[in-house]
Amino acid sequence: MDLVGACRAFVQVSERGSFTAGAAAARMSQSVASRRVAALEQHLGERLFERTSRRARLTPFGRSLLPAARRLVLAAEELEHEAATAHQRPVPLAVPDTCPTPELARLAAAARGLGTVLDPRTAAPAERPHLVRSQQVRAALVAVPPDQARWSVPLGLATVAEPAARRLFLESLRPRRTRRGRPRRVWVQPEDDVPHVRDRLTRLGDSVGLLPAQVSVATSLTQAAAQVLSGDDLLLCSPVQAREFALHWRPLGELDMERTYGLLAAEEGDAERLGDRLGDAIAHCLGAGEEPAEARAAHPRPAADRTRRGGPPHSRGTPSA
Fold it and tell me: Which region, left, alpha or beta, applies to residue 114 given φ > 0 means left and ψ of -120 to 50 means alpha?
């Protein structure tokens, strides 16, 4: 039996002295109100109303139970109000500051379509875990090693001048005696200043004979992009970022590199729920799965690899040497 619905009908009928008027006030048909009151009487073991053709008059038993029924109905209405308020309470999510504003808006719109009011807040890589631990946000997209990643963003090198080759080899940046001026640099933006990206690139630079300063970590994406746009340096970035700066993107020749993410949440289970519900929208926001024609031509991947978004990390082969 629907105890709350039955008590709501009981209260409204008692206040109006009529099943017809009471049913209308309770937003149900007269027949439904009659059935619910009858079920409540059967459940409680005694009649609540003396019924006549025109009036419904409370019995002594009904009068004694009416205050408790009112409290139950009010408590149910308060619960429903709190639930509606909780659904509309924003869920703060810390995201990389590399996410384009239009994609953040689409992520928030996708969440609204699922009944969640998402509040994306951009933050630097090192700041995002701190925001979760200090409970300033409910969850955060954080950099994780590739074997722990849920989303993977391809990384390559971008330049002002369009390269003739389908891949850019770091070895080609090795200083030459015939070249005048300072050697070309690869700029690493703060989002990629994490061990599994920065250290791999640095070790590769050392192995192919680059000078230490040729792989440099910038203080901001703006600074890194400005260095590239004003000369012939290169930016380590995703295909989406390269398009934003009107740069020409190519994958690295010596190894495959990815920017890899997972979800960190303050409450157990929040990360899995957010990831399951918004996995595809988060992938679009990060640029995960984006792979330009240059990358596909240089290093084809299985179709399932290219199209998978928002799921567990795909299997990875041995990086090309």
Answer: alpha
